[in-house]
Each structure stands twice: as structure tokens, then as C-alpha cells.
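User: C-alpha cells for this one?
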Amino acid sequence: MGRRARALDGGLYAGYVNIWGDWAAHLSFAGSFAYGHNFPAEFPIDTGHRLGYPFMIDFLASNLVPMGLSLTATLTATSAMLGLAFPGVTYLAAARFLGGRAGAAIAVFVFLLSGGLGFVYLAGDVQHFGLAALAHLPREYTLNRDVNLQWLNPVLAYLVPQRSTLFGFSLALILLVVLWMAVRERLGWQPFLFAGLVTGTLPVFHVHAWGTVVALPFFWALFDRRREWGFFFAPALAIGLPILLWMWPPDNTSICGDLPRIAGYCIQPGWLAFTDWQRQGALYLFLPDVVWFWIWNASLLLPLLVAGHVLYRWFPTAFPTWFAPMWLWFAVPSVIVLQPWVWDNTKFFVFWALLGSIVAGGVLARMVQRGPGTAIVAVVVMALLGLSGGLDLARASDFSVSSVQFTDEGGLKVAEWVRTHTSPTAVFAVADEHNSPIPTLAGRRELVGYPGWLWTYGLADYVQKGEDDKRILQGDPTALDLVRKYGIDYVMIGPQEVPRGGSRAYWDEHGTKVYDDGEYAVYRVGNA
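Assistant:
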């Protein structure tokens, strides 16, 4: 855990590339709460917009700053605490769903080590690099877009970088178990009400978890009608929908190109299975190519889930029947791109995989119990399921090959100065890089942040703001007018701004230099 973000040689390093990428946003959100008086919550990386990202995980982290932890330490601490709890939550939930401990343990293994068949490249890597490749793995084996490996191991895709899933996955499992037990054991209206009240708050913890915990029980209620369901759905919707509407992105920023669309969302049958039928129009290849795509990406998870439905008598709790509606979480994103970035459809697939891992665990546990022959097959299947994910987790823990510099010593120093010498509500014009030290480490708002994030958040004004931000940094003739228009208090010219044409000469003349270490210069330009 300690290697997620660490100081080294005066700078700050992330232990894995997705931490370098995604934790920049989480540092910005947490820092805005800890240092930036961000209430009512707005995006610190695109001022003027309500904070539509599930921010509770970062609000939790920010509350540890007054206890003496650094901002980076608060993210590591909260991720460690919730990350260590997740396997236990998954095990306990799976034990309830399956009615046994063996399948529950296997389910944890299946999900946490999930990956495809990319391990087949390991032999070639050993042949090319020698046995040193085993000590320092040269590549990722669950994500390689050149060979259409798209299903990055869930720990590395979600639990570590996208911190809101630490709440979302666990809360979804807990609430579904509460409802499942309430239905099966006829516990009365109280557990339904409890689950509904907690579910209502879920959007600020994890939006997709809220959708799953509301939608899956809807199908359960269709087949097990009872008045107690009202005690669940009433608060879950009455509390959750207003929160969801408050968080809803102002724009649909999906870009479909030549693809058809429905209600603004792109239609892309097969998701990322770029297949022969798409290239050559051979429709009959669609199904086999999509099936192979998922075997290639998720190993034997898909066949195991199908087997779970066929062999439903192996399950004393009939869990595959309760799981069945989750196939919609697989089918719909396989046709409709529900996010601006097509890869983000995994935010739906991952809940199918999470609950599907419990089905897979039940099948594999029963195979182990039936006799030596099926037990051997089960062990082989588990190896095929987990080898690629295990390799990638091992590689991610190797700081020598997976670390990336987040910022240099100068970035740390200017961030500390800004925190202690500027107003908590000050707005900065800086380069629209994701790891700018001003929003990520100083907790201050910026005119516009990394455009890739803002596009996926549905904030279409990033295009105009990005152009205006560049004009301000360059000292365009309109720069001072833009400073007044956007209420900019400070301009920083540093290593990220200079390649964008950031002009020290202009701001030496038109601003008041308040900080300069030779590499980073901060200018007061507004009424700060």
C-alpha cells in the first residue's frame, strides 16, 4: 500500500501508471475539501460545475488531513482500509449467496485475479529476456490493446485507481445480501427499509453501484411480489434520484462518428470486439467472434457462468437464478456505448463480473467436491482464470518497473507555498495537465483541468475553456480580459506551462510575481 504514492529523490512517484493517472483526480477532489473550502461541492478542475463525480471516498480522505496526515497519505490510508476489507466482504457475501465457504473463497480468487489469456505471451518474454523477465515482468498481460486484450484486472482497473469502487463494490454486495436474506427468510419490512435508506445515499459513493442495487432487486421483486419491497424502493428512489439529478452531467459528450446512435448514445455491437463481421460485413461471424473476444479477455468466466445456469441444481440456494438478470449488465453494454469513452462500459461489465464470480466460485467448488477428476479440471480452470491477473498484480507491486513520477521537487514546493499563501477559494490558470501540482497537491481550483477527464464527465465547456486557458498563459492580447471573465486570481508558469507557450515575460509585466524558484513562477493577477 505504501508504494501507491511515495516521495523519492525530492519528487513524488506513483507506484502504478493508473495511480499516476486516476489519483490525480482524487487528489484534486480530496484537496479541494481539505484545503479549498469546496462546499457546495464543485469540480475543482472545471470551476462552476457541480461535483458530479462520486466524491464520498475523497471526502473521507480529506477528513484525515486535520489529524496530521499528508494529502497523499490520506488516499493511501483510506484505500488500504477499504481495500483490505473488500475481500472479506466478498467472501461473506458469497458465502451467503452460495450457502458454503469453499465456493465463497474461490469467488474471491476469481474476481481479484480476473484476467484473460494474455499469459500466453509470458513464454515469449522469458525466451526474449531470459529468466530476468520473471523477476521484473516486461509487460501487462491483462491489458494489451494491440492484441485486443481489454479486460484489465479489476484490482488494477478499479479498486486501486478508481477509489469510489472501494465503497461501491462492498456496499452493493452488502445491500444485495440484506435484501436477498430478507426475501428468503421473510424477515419483515425492517431490512427492506434499512437497505432502501442506505441505497438512497449510494450515488455520492458510487453511481453504478446505486443503479445495480436498485435495478437487480427490481427484477427480484417481479418474481417475488410482496408489499415489503415498497419499504426498499421508496427511500432508494426518493433519496437517490434527487442526488443523481444533482450529479448528472450537463452534456452528453459521446462522439459516435459513423456509428448509429440512440438518444445520443452510440451503437457499437460487440463493444470492443473489432471482428471480421464489422470489417467485412460478415454478420454470421458476430456471435463466435464476440464469444472468443470474451474468452480471450476474461478466460473461462463466460463458460462458467453459462455452466452455472445449466447446473443450477449444484447450488443449494439457487443463486444462478437470482443472478440471471445481471446478464443485462453484460448484454446492453455489449451493444450500446453508455459512456463517452467506449472502454468505460467496463463500469457496467464489472458488476456482471463481480456477481458472476460468485456463480463461477459455486461451480468450481462443486467440481472440486465431486471427485479427483473434476477437481483436477477445476484447478486447471482456476489457473487459467487467475494467471494473467496474478502476473499483472505482481508486476504492479514491482516499483522498479511500474512507478511513474507524478511531480518533481519544485512541484511539491510550489504546492506547499500555494496552500499556505493563497486564499482557499483562489482560482489558478495553469496547464491543463492531469498532474498539475496546483489542483492535485495545493487543493486550489483551476480554470480547466485535463480535457480527457472533463470529456468523460460530460463537461463540454472544456474545449472553449482550454483555448482561453492557453491564451491566458501565452499572454494573448485578450489575456487580461479573460482573467476578468473567469475570475482568475493567479497564473503559474512552470515546466508544464512553458511547452504550451506560457510567457514569463508577459506576466512579469502584467502580473505581480509572488513566488519564483527559477522553475515555477506564480503571478497574482486578480483581486486575491
